[in-house]
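## Example pair
The file below holds two records. Each record gives the amino-acid sequence first, followed by its structure token line.
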Amino acid sequence: MLPFDKFHDECGVVAIFAHPEAEKLAYLGLHALQHRGQESAGIATSDGLTLRSHKAMGPVAEIFTEEVLAKITGTLAIGHTRYSTAGDSALLNAQPIQVQSNKGAIAVAHNGNLTNAQTVRAQLEGQGSIFQTNSDTEVIVHLIALSKEHTLPYAIGDALRRVEGAFSLVMMSPDRIMAARDPRGFRPLAMGRIRAPEGQKCDTIVFASETCAFDLIGATYERDVEPGELVVVGPEGITSTFYAEPAPRSSCIFEHVYFSRPDSVVFGRAVQTSREEMGRQLAREAPVEADLVVPVPDSGVTAAVGYAAESGIPFRFGLIRNHYVGRTFIEPSQSVRDFGVKLKLNPVRSLLKGRRVVLIDDSIVRGTTSRKIVRMIRSAGAKEVHMRISCPPTISPCYYGVDTPSKSQLIAANKSIDEIREYIGADSLSYLSLEGLKKACGDGEKTSYCSACYTGKYPTSIVDVEEILPARA
């Protein structure tokens, strides 16, 4: 039996129905979603009769050359970009997963994490199923294939009722696209439309993890796929069914804190709006006398804008990010202190020297990077460094599709705020309160959020959280 992923996937998915260059639109959509995963990417297409696919390790632009796309042309397409942090970053786990089953050919791409995947997989293997990957997505594929339902949409609904956890799925058969979300709506999935030009029979329907993908391909956002909903787009049009009873909403608040792009609308709310309000709320909760507000780029920029606006302290880019750091680099043989951080960030000494700096970031996970950045700011001559974090302390791992380390590696789970402040070397340290974060993200307006990473209280029944990671190693 292959081991499961040690950590969870952060992924982006896209789907295109009825476009003469579906493979190219899927490529562009994945390009816009590249921040959601850089480890591998794949696209599956259909010409109405046959499914074709290509997937490889690496970033989207390197994988999908014009020559590759020319081999997978189609009018339907789904795509996936994946990030993993453990030893499973192998091609066998790249998606979409494509299979031939008694329901016909099907390709599946998944963003999220199934919390009962090990149990279901063991049951399926006991019945004779043979797994080709160690991805929990393959569990869904086997359940669809083994379902006693006679049509593919019913088989998908039957399969999804047997899994638990977080999933936003796009699926494809030769003549239709299907999209579904788990009943709690953990991960985002948006639906959009490209109006048909004159001479084309029907509009192009598109799905994506974030609406920023629609902007690049000229699609208009229409709505989110609802939690527990299965949308089928085929020759007969668009049909919608709910395969599961409604459950309490548990949308991932970390999508607004960090994961999604600020130019996206996620869970019906503009991410930019949420992040600026996080900064404003942080300035109200944790004011400090200072000369400059400096973001840690790029993750802290939008919150820093809000903090500066609310506090009246000038906003400055005191750290410059090098956007051209490749996947590999040559490190000098004589060790340079904090080399990895210096490779990505460099201080603007003329701005920082002699100044009292408010340093804004979205989170502190292990604390090692924050420590290096504070040290960098001080070495550039800053008089004081006051760290402000636009979310609460992260004290628990996520099991719903965001990569966070085990509890033993989360600094806030093992140290007090003052101990963290001392470790990173800041003059002061404050986090945004959970109440302030929920208020900033509009909790209760269009959705309710899961905040288990900040509370340790999980919205679904899962195995003891301290035992999950070792069991998956």
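Second record, same layout:
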Amino acid sequence: MSAKKTVAFHTLGCKLNFSETSTLSRMLENEGFEKTAFENHADVYVINTCSVTDNADKECRQLVRRIQRKAPESLVVITGCYAQLKPKEIASIPGVDMVLGAAEKFNIAQHLKELTKGDATKICSCDIEEVSGFNSSFSIHDRTRTFLKVQDGCDYNCSFCTIPMARGKSRSDLIEGVVANVKQLAGNGVKEIVLTGVNLGDFGKGPQNDVVAGSPRNREENFYELANALDKLDGVERYRISSIEPNLLTNAIIELVANSNSFMPHFHIPLQSGSNRILGLMRRRYRRELYAERVKLIKTLMPHAAIGVDVIVGFPGETDEDFQETFDFLHELDITYLHVFTYSERDNTHALTLGPVVPVHVRHERNKTLRNLSYMKQQYFNQQFSGSTRKVLFEENQKNGMMEGYTDNYIKVVAPYKAEWVNKVVEWKL
């Protein structure tokens, strides 16, 4: 018998990509491939790319160059958002054998059967308008927390974003499909599931009577109904809601989390700017006043809840006054931490027509200012719970004899490694 072919994966970008990479890995393992670490020598390397920042594009090129030096005879497959947006650009990178767009990544096994090293780079992509199917994905055996994709694509047209061009129209699984996946994950001993999507609050949208996972969609569902259905299931101790737009985070969803034993008191709500003028230029679908209302309701019902915030600095036209407005708004807001993104120009976005352009060094200064604010916010939040006891789910990874876990409200805990604590929820005094 010939030895199994080995495959190695590297994921750039978001939790959604992480869940899809895990699913692609299982697909190939079912086809007889053996998964190995990306640092090792492999017969096939698969890079799942992101398109949100310039850095992700550069990182993809660097990874391909590294593979070329280490294993020039190996096959290199690029998929993900960057692959959908710029397939020809990727195909021109020396060493890339195949580029799989949004519609073709889940057909990777078939494409690999038809691929030979030395052939011209194969591009399997289509117009994003033609992408309509939903492929559920989840990560398993990768970490204690599992990322479960329940929604894909986006119908919004934010002026800085390429995601709709990379992932297509909003579409999602059926509630019964999500429930079936959750039961499977529970059967595999998963303790915490993070619900993910491109525009998660848009869950339930899809053409009437389309077929998802073998079942027809007879009516539109919504995210509240999904959360309510999952909350009634046994077997999974914890759910987290990944990033959800403030205009789609309804009072009903917040109240459900407040009254739930399984949904964790932890929200991640993109803001992007604390200036209404900039929010308008970004084509966001809310104003800062609505955002503040959402935060206030969460903190009224769950004073212990963690709230993460996405912010973009250096957007075209952002003046010092606009940035100060953002800083002051966030400083006053009862939030926990920030994910700060430095604006980078993306091809074919409306933001490229806006101005004046903010100098790059100013963008970096603003980023640093908000990251310092984030650090102080996180420290303040953590200190409020010093001496209290909270439930911590410990993860498998150990480093220098230590293990990590997170409380229900997302405070990171580091403790001496104990094998019996792995994938267990432990009462822990902070």
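Notes on the second record: The domain at 6-130 is CATH 3.40.50.12160 (Rossmann fold). The longest helix spans residues 360-384.
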